[in-house]
């Protein structure tokens, strides 16, 4: 069980290191809300999918489910690729089981999560605003940033004069938009309102313009690069959410040029398709100049702590993989870049999923694994949200920043 101080730390940071396993449980809403000043991510908007509690937590493997019995009656021999995928699954399975066991034992943390949508008022039901990914071709579309300054002392030193506003109007596409202040900024594009966290920036463009992010000076490159490409997969749901691209398109991403001269940590989200894993390991990472050093797993649970589906379902795993690699710089080698401790393999990050394909905020965890890179520049590629201290690039980096996803305290 988690101790009182661990629960207090979880309430504060949204991160709980689970005992006796290499796992952390995170509440993305708490993690994200650490950086906002006037707004809060609404839990009911974040946890918009139905992953409701059903106590007590179900076991990780439900061998008595009807579906499974049916499957067990007619076992089909696995083809070569499926066998490789199964070997990968069997290798990580004990780590996932141990991590889940630790979560089920952390009853105080689960108790907090059982009311994960509560605490910040009613659920937001306003319809989504304009789909910016669909209109990025409109080159003249503008964003209006409303800077907000609070509590300026009065001339006579008396009571403060509150709220001085400054507006900036800029092209929203193919342009780096920066909130360099330590405060949240409200912005407007067409008829939609967006919230930009402190010290965040974004560049909204198609892949054809990504080279504009390459720094003029190599020592201004990025130290941490998180990539979540729009991989092709058969999911009809995914097809309606955003456009996907064939694997070979990602070979030309200028990862090497985006890296700091000292080198960088590159973290790539991949699906469980074995063909994709092979492509990344044999073609994509080598093309990017990235050496694979560790694999992390995102284990998805419901609000009651049970897995979102059976651990051993072959075509629908309750986890996704994050491949962590190093892009060596000219100056430092891997050891100098990361410090004395190597990045540990098979780290498990557990959380309740948000909207379709939305990944948990792992930036802070990556910085902990690479302490020497703390304070360096960070970028997320194909981002759908902004983060304090990070640059977000993609064709819809404002997607989850729409004001209907936020509440004010
Ligand atoms: N990491 C994101 C999250 O947690 O919400 C999900 C990213 S999603 C897998 C891939 C993103 O790439 C989508 O937002 C999609 O619109 C974007 N995308 C697709 N084609 C693109 C292109 N040609 N240029 C830039 N972004 C593109």
Please describe what this structure looks like.
- By secondary structure, this protein is of the alpha/beta class.
- It has helices spanning 4-13, 28-33, 43-46, 66-73, 80-105, 107-114, 132-135, 236-241, 255-258, 274-288, 334-338, 363-369, and strands at residues 15-17, 23-26, 39-41, 142-149, 164-171, 176-179, 185-189, 192-196, 200-204, 224-227, 263-270, 290-300, 319-328, 347-351, 378-381, 390-394, 406-408.
- It is globular.
- The protein starts with a helix and ends with a strand.
- Bound molecules: S-adenosylmethionine.
- S-adenosylmethionine binds next to loops.
- S-adenosylmethionine binds at residues 133, 206-207, 228, 230, 242-243, 245, 357-359, 382-384, 394-396.
Short summary:
This protein is of the alpha/beta class and 409 residues long. The protein has helices at 4-13, 28-33, 43-46, 66-73, 80-105, 107-114, 132-135, 236-241, 255-258, 274-288, 334-338, 363-369, and strands at residues 15-17, 23-26, 39-41, 142-149, 164-171, 176-179, 185-189, 192-196, 200-204, 224-227, 263-270, 290-300, 319-328, 347-351, 378-381, 390-394, 406-408. Strand 7 and strand 8 form a beta hairpin.
Distance between the termini: 32 Å
> Low-confidence parts, pLDDT < 50 over ≥5 residues?
none
The ligands bound in this entry are: S-adenosylmethionine
In terms of structural class, how would the helical and strand content be classed? alpha/beta
Radius of gyration: 22 Å
State the helical fraction: 25-40%
Mean pLDDT reading: 87
Total strands: the figure is 17
Oligomer: single chain
In N-to-C order, the SSE pattern is HEEHEHHHHHEEEEEEEHHEHEEHEHEEE
